[in-house]
Structures are given as structure tokens and as C-alpha cells.
Amino acid sequence: MYWVKISCILCMFGCFKDFRPSESFVTDYLTGWKNFTASEVNHEIYPVTTYSYLSTLIIMFLITDFIRYKPIIILCGLSGIISFLLIILGKIVLVLQIAKFFFGLFMSAEVAYYTYIYAKVDKKHYQEVTSHTKAASLFGRSMSGIIAQLTASFDLLNYHQLNYLTLSSISIATVWSFFLPRVGQSIYFHRVSASDDEENNAAAVQQTIDQSGQPSNPRISSCDKNDKTQSDTLLHKIRNAYALLWKHFVLAYTNYRVIKWSAWWSLSTCGYLLVATYSQLLWQTAVKPGDRIYNGAVDFAYAIVGAMSVFSVGKLRLNWALLGDIICSLFAFLEGCILLTSSYSYNIWFLYTGYIIFGVIYHTMVTVARCVRCNYYCGPSP
């Protein structure tokens, strides 16, 4: 049950990483405590996260395997600390833009959190560990939502103080990340090289020769050692890694099922990030002055239902090759209807409900997409 232990350790990081109670009221905090206008928040501050996430995600993808996951997980925590420190201290748009740049880096570095587990467990456990890591993330978010709502509703903490709670949680996650087991071998850059097998075979042949009484050839042993040394060079590792990466790319994206699930993943993530980023600005248009807002309770509801859904789907054994198209189409249509009707609605409870349903669908299906896609083209874990 080693894989369960690794999954639990990683999930603790995920819980603390996503325990960010200040995010439930971040728009009200920026337009209230920080005195930024809704236009500044909408057009100058929030978009930086999107551009930062897009640009740094490519870099994170390329180097995560090379430096073996754990340093990127630590970077994820550190960038989160910097982001929320700047949010607490910042008073001008430029400082908040820098904060959102680091938040985009924080989001892109999460790729290491979600892929670390694939380098540590056997492929047969992919579906379960994928659901574990996603459920842990959603559980942390659900706890942050209910804490934010209770502390705000009973005037225990104000919006500014919630940022300190968020900062503390991310700091704990960062410290915890140092205790994650290191990844000795990774999928691309640090594989068990073929030369290891060749050396073992050569040793077996040499032993047979010795037993037969025939003289050995020291020149052959010397060549084997030289070849081994050459194969371990950095350049050789990089060349082999990108050759394997290209091979996996070709194998994956000549498979229409991988293309289908990847398209769902990328497009639904685009939609989800936009909804998650700008939903609070939409809710402000439906809330009258003096009304109590329940953003934290909504975050709790959607995250806890999503966590249960994601955890359950990890145990579910369905023929996704057969049912995938139907399920994806139905859920995509439902999400589209939610977005369309929400854009015309000024009923806050309808907007809250739509947000919860949209979030649950996204997290459930993206978990399915991740594990199905990995099952199609991920090689055996080291």
C-alpha cells in the first residue's frame, strides 16, 4: 500500500495549498478595502493572472520532469506566499499586477502537484490517485469557503484579515512540500537507461565465460564502461527525453480518444478559469447595497460536492470509450446553458446555483479526462 501513503502525503499539501479563505471575497476586498474600481480590477488586475498562467505553464511543463517534480511543488508554495504578501501590502495597480503574475505562476506550478503522483505509483492506480489529489484540493477549498463565510458573517475576521489566514495556510503547505519523498526517476529525463540493462547482460555473459574457463576480454569491459559514462551525460539525457517526448506526442495525438479528452480538458479549463476569475464581479451586479453576501458558503457547497463527486468517480468503472462522447456532450451543453442564462440574470441565488453546478461538472469531468488520457499514453511509472 505504498501508493496510498504517497497519495496521502501529497494530498495534505493539496489541502493546505487550496485553503485560501480570502479568495471567496477577493473582489469585494479589492473594490472595498483597497479602493480599486471595478474597471481596474476587471481590465487591469485580473487579466494578468491569465497571461501569466499561460506563459509560465509552458515552462513548467518542460522543466517539471527534468528537475523531478518536488522543486516545482516547492516553487508553487513560494509563489503563492509572494502573491498574497503583495496583495496584503499592495496599494497601487502595479503591485497588484505583480501579485497576480505570481498567482499565475502559482497556478501553473500546480502541474507538478497533479503529475508528481504518476512518477511514484503504478499505472493501475492512476484513476484512484488522480481522484485523491483532486478531491484533496477541493476539500481544502470547501473548508476555506465555510471558514470565510462564518468568520465574515459573525464579524470574527474582516476581508483583510482573511488574507493572513490564507498566507498562513500556503506557508504550511510550502513547509510540508519539503517533506515530500523525492522522485528518483522520472518519466522522461531520469528514466532507467537502456545501458543499465546492457551492463547487466554483459556481466551475465562475463560470468558465463569465467565459468567456462575462457579468457575474458578487458577491452570489451572498458568499452562498456565508457559507453555507460557517455550515456549518462546531460546532453544524452536531454536528447533521449525529447525523443521520447516527441514519440509520446505522436502516439497520443494520433489517437482520437486522447485528442477528444484533451480538447475537453483544455476548453473546459479555459471556461472554468474565466468563470472563477470574473464570477464575483457578476455577482456584484445582482447584490443590492446592504445585502449579506454568501460567496464563502457557495464556495463551500460547490467544492464539497465536487470533492465527493471527484472521489466517487475514482472508484467508478465505466467504459469511457463508449460513454465518453455522450457524457461530454451533455455536460458541455448544460454548462453552456448555465453561462448563457447567468449572463442575463440578476437573481443572486440563480447565479450562485449556476456557479455550483458549473464547478462540480468541471472538476468531475476534468478528473476523468486526466486519468483517461494518462491511461492511453503514459508509460509505466518508474
UniProtKB/TrEMBL annotation:
Membrane topology qualifier: Multi-pass membrane protein
Transmembrane segments: 45-63, 72-92, 98-117, 162-181, 263-281, 293-313, 320-342, 348-369
Compartment(s) of residence: Membrane
Polar residues compositional bias, start-end: 208-220
Record's keyword terms, sorted: Membrane, Transmembrane, Transmembrane helix, Transport
InterPro entries: Folate_carrier (IPR002666), MFS_trans_sf (IPR036259)
GO MF term list: vitamin transmembrane transporter activity
Keyword Transport: yes
Pfam family, one: Folate_carrier
Stretches the record annotates as Disordered: 208-228
Keyword Transmembrane helix on entry: yes
Cellular component terms per the entry's GO annotation: plasma membrane
Source species, domain of life: Eukaryota
PANTHER family: FOLATE TRANSPORTER, IP11787P-RELATED
Similarity section: Belongs to the reduced folate carrier (RFC) transporter (TC 2.A.48) family.
NCBIfam families for the chain: rfc (TIGR00806)
Protein name: Thiamine transporter 2-like isoform X2
This protein's encoding gene: LOC105422910
